[in-house]
Design goal:
233 residues; mRNA Triphosphatase Cet1, Chain A; 37% strand; two-stranded antiparallel sheet; 22% helix; alpha+beta
Amino acid sequence: MSRSAVGGQDERHEIKFATYAANLPAVRCWLRLHAEAFVSPYPPRRVNNVYFDTWSYRAYADNLAGVSERAKLRLRWYGASSLPGAGALEIKRKRNHFGWKLRYPIVAGDCGAGVSWAELREDIRAQLPPDGQLWFDQNPQPVLLNRYEREYFVTIDGRIRATIDTCQQAFDQRYQRRPNLRSPAIMQDTLVLELKFARAERQRAVAMLADAPVRVGRHSKFMNGMRAVGLVG
């Protein structure tokens, strides 16, 4: 289930798969030839995220421990720019198997090469409503910048969406005065397939996965990125 802080509500359930990037042709072929008739609604694009956490890494610790009710905060934007641009501040919340997302649009700010995290945080915070500012203040530390290439698919009736993420990169932002884009962490070349659908479509989605070329598995780009930059439980 996903709720937006702007523009109403969008209930959603998610199923994730992770496999080696070498399986990309097989995964694409499975989607394109599936009886559910997946099509590509728009071209691939790069997804960029900066994750924020508390000084005690609560979001990381809660995810590591599998806490049933947890949240993580990220700034997301799209495109080739490595520095934050127009996008949204998102709070992804989860309770047991269901989640919802609060989303606050952010316009592009002063993101020159020398911009500091303090300046970026001030710019972002000024654009948030009071509830968004509270979340932002409670998660003051930029800990990870990650990016990846995403391909989009949707069934012909628009009820089940799928994404394929490849070419993941992660950059440690802890203890950095300015965004660190110089030293990517060493990561396994992984492909992530994710299906997204309304709760009412769950039975249909599960049935269509019977012949999937990859297995269902727990996967978090945030957690994998944090481990890659050296944070362990």
